[in-house]
Specification:
Elements (H helix, E strand, L loop, with lengths): L1 E5 L3 H12 L3 E5 L11 E4 L4 E4 L4 E3 L3 H10 L5 E2 L6 E5 L5 E4 L29 H4 L16 H15 L8 H10 L10 E4 L3 H15 L3 E3 L4 E7 L2 E7 L2 E4 L5 E4 L3 H7 L9 E9 L10 E5 L5 E5 L2 E6 L3 H4 L3 H16 L8 E11 L3 H4 L12 E3 L12 H21 L1
Parallel strand pairs: 1-2, 1-14, 2-10, 7-16, 14-20
Antiparallel strand pairs: 3-4, 5-9, 6-9, 7-8, 11-12, 12-13, 15-18, 15-19, 16-17, 17-18
């Protein structure tokens, strides 16, 4: 039995690692010339350094992510603060503050004025409980009051980053799922972690090594043009250089983007609206003592990351920025960095990276379009952060979807 995995992004690699680890025969078919999808690293010719396509954060409580990293041997390749502190800076007022949650799920930190969001009261935080019980069809704006210090200085930036969707119109159920797996579990579950030295080194290259050591194969630059179906199953995959017939015991995991998957599978419903993410990279070694991650309030930038060789910015739900002139955008983002960290306004060498269809729009309407992993064809399973993982489009969701796809495919083998 061979399992063919269409797509070598994180979902596809997660599925492949799970199957190969169980002794499965795995072949990955990837349309592009490299693995990783949106979780990739590359050598940038302008800055002459290795960059990640995005500053993807992982939280310490992302269990499936850490299970995946442990399996491929890189669970020590994520770095971040020793505690769950969250640093913020308001570029309009010049005010800075640090939120310092305690580790346990009993959130006594909200009782301490020096630990909680400035200007908030302990009772303000109880409103977040409504998101944990939110119904599928409701938006965040229909569920909690989207105003006040707690909203402006913590909840909105946190949910905007998690959902990559304007927060008030975002799905309350997905917001509740994020909170249930992070804020509700205590500070030990939401210590910020980022790949070191790169996404590729932590998530992708070691997974490919793991697969190669177990005899798995990867075909690059091989887009699947169509799937053939017969007698309730996928019977062949059609590539540019010809078909790959499937034996009766073979299976397929489709881990391609939704706009490709819907062209391959009849009547497949997928999300139709997508939001952009913009990242800015600035070639300047940060001065000693800079905070590694700072949330920005009231600026163009939303999060600033200090890496050993550069300063980087991430802006979520950035459709209004995606069409802007790159140099003007670099100037605006650097002004925010300069204000937050007290640096000169002189613009260092820069690179703007625009991911126009970074994630599906995490609204209630789009969330209902996410298909489950099972399909009407008995040897076809779906994977991807756009499938019904119960989470928004995140690294944790992508890896979880691959893990689910691997489990279902192994069950198919046992039942055969």
């Amino acid at each position: 039995m061979t399992v063919y995995i269409i797509g070598a992004g994180l979902a596809g690699l997660s599925a492949a690692v799970g199957l190969a680890g169980a002794g499965g025969d795995v072949e990955i078919i990837e349309a592009s010339a490299q693995a990783g999808g949106r979780c990739r690293s590359y050598v940038d010719p302008v800055l002459d350094m290795t960059l990640d396509n995005g500053n993807h954060l992982v939280l310490s409580g992302n269990r499936d992510t850490f299970d995946y990293l442990r399996r491929i041997g890189t669970d020590d390749c994520l770095e971040g603060p020793a505690d769950a502190r969250l640093d913020f800076h308001d570029v309009a007022s010049g005010e800075s503050w640090t939120i310092r949650p305690n580790d346990s799920a009993l959130a006594w930190w909200i009782l301490s004025e020096s630990r909680r969001v400035p200007g908030t009261r302990p009772g303000d935080y109880l409103a977040l409980l409504s998101l944990l019980l939110a119904r599928t069809h409701r938006t965040i704006g229909q569920t909690i009051a989207c105003r006040g210090g707690l909203w402006d200085r913590l909840v909105e930036p946190f949910l905007l980053a998690a959902l990559n969707t304007e927060a008030t119109s975002g799905s309350a159920a997905l917001a509740g799922a994020v909170i249930a797996e992070s804020l509700a579990r205590g500070g030990k579950a939401y210590r910020a972690r980022i790949a070191h030295p790169t996404l590729g080194a932590a998530f992708i290259a070691p997974a490919l090594d793991y697969l190669a050591a177990r005899g798995s194969r990867v075909r690059y630059a091989s887009p699947v043009k169509s799937l053939a179906f017969a007698e309730g199953r996928v019977s062949a995959m059609i590539l540019a250089d010809g078909p790959i017939p499937l034996a009766s015991e073979d299976s397929v995991i489709l881990a391609a983007p939704p706009w490709i998957s819907e062209t391959l599978v009849p009547d497949l419903k997928v999300p139709q609206i997508f939001n952009a993410i913009v990242n800015g990279h600035f070639k300047m070694a940060p001065p000693p003592g800079l905070k590694p991650i700072v949330g920005v309030i009231g600026g163009t930038a939303q999060w600033i990351f200090a890496f050993p060789d550069r300063l980087s910015v991430t802006v979520s739900a950035a459709d209004d920025l995606a069409d802007q002139d790159r140099e003007a955008l670099a100037q605006a983002l650097w002004r925010d960095i300069a204000k937050v960290h007290g640096l000169t306004d002189a613009l260092p060498p820069w690179r703007i990276v625009k991911e126009r269809r970074a994630t599906f729009a995490a609204t209630p309407e789009q969330n209902t379009l996410r298909p489950g992993a099972r399909t009407a064809w008995r040897n076809l399973v779906l994977a991807g952060d756009w499938t019904a993982t119960g989470l928004p489009s995140t690294i944790e969701g992508a890896i979880r979807s691959g893990k689910t796809a691997a489990r279902l495919t192994l069950n198919l083998r046992r039942d055969a």
